[in-house]
Amino acid sequence: MGFNAANAQNKPNTVKTLKLTILSTMLTDFNGMGEWGFCALVEVDGKKILFDTGARPETVLNNIRELKIDLTDVTEVFISHNHQDHTGGLNSLKKVLSETNPKALSVAHIGEGAFYPRPRAMGDTTASYMITARKEFEKAGGKFIVYRETKEIYPGVWITGPVPRVHPERNWMGQGKMILPDGKVAEDVIPEDQSMIFNTADGLIILSGCGHAGVVNTMEYARKQIGVQTVSTLLGGFHLFNLSDEKIKWTATKMKEYGVQNFIGAHCTGVNAAFDIRQQLGLSRSNAVVGAVGSSFELGKGIAPGMIAK
Asked: pLDDT digit string (tens) for 51-75?
């Protein structure tokens, strides 16, 4: 479901309240647990959605105890892509939360391609963490909804689905292989990579897991599909840590062009990359930070970075 001629005269829905809180990333400034992974809690217009689930089975469970956050009423989880640093906590979270609420994490939103086999060696045609995780999740009563295109799942809340790679943003390591449905072996470009978008009165807010499709590709696709041109806020992992200075500058130039005013670069964004973007966008320490466990963004209030995330 995208922006087209049929709805061109209707303004897209906007969210009224929104808070995004990071529950898994590398930095933490309390008795929480840091890791190479990502998870965030979405609270939007009275609904809760979990975005990714962290890497280790216990990380998010530990951090929500420390932050005193209750996830037992969260029935939906968004999976940005298949990598274990975003999906490793899925089944442990479901198991623990289901003890209180049988419907907890009962629906998972995921992009097409997440379940392609990813052989670790060419003789191994079945290796894929998500194939195994899917069996366990469904055995426990969970359901996956697979997306091939953009979808508005709640008023003003969008799932991009797989993002077209218009610009050559190779924001992945480039060493993996995947087996396509026709049996051909191809480079694993993480084709299922998707982001969550929130349309607000101030513009689009993009929540990203790793941004393997490219943050510029994602911004442009969101603008096209939803019909809103301003991207006010970017939060999450953007896999910029290994980019050249030239590519970082190009990325920041596009962010500035599209109106980015708030930036929380967590997980694989890279500390240096986050600071470079802050400088090139002309943002302050209040508007551009390195994300930590407990860092949050709230509509109308802005960024609450935590003590060490500035």
From this structure: 999 999 999 999 999 999 999 999 9
pTM over 0.90: yes
The token pair that represents 176 in the structure block: 């993996």
Domain ranges within the chain, ordered by starting residue: 14-300
Angstrom distances, CA of residue 35 to CA of 6, 23, 48, 260: 45, 10, 23, 27
CATH topology of domain 14-300: Metallo-beta-lactamase; Chain A (3.60.15)
Residue from 18, 76, 23 nearest 198 by CA: 18
Q: Which are the contacts of 275, defined by CB distance < 8 A and separation ≥ 6? A: 290
Structure tokens at 244: 């050249």
Amino acid at 71: L
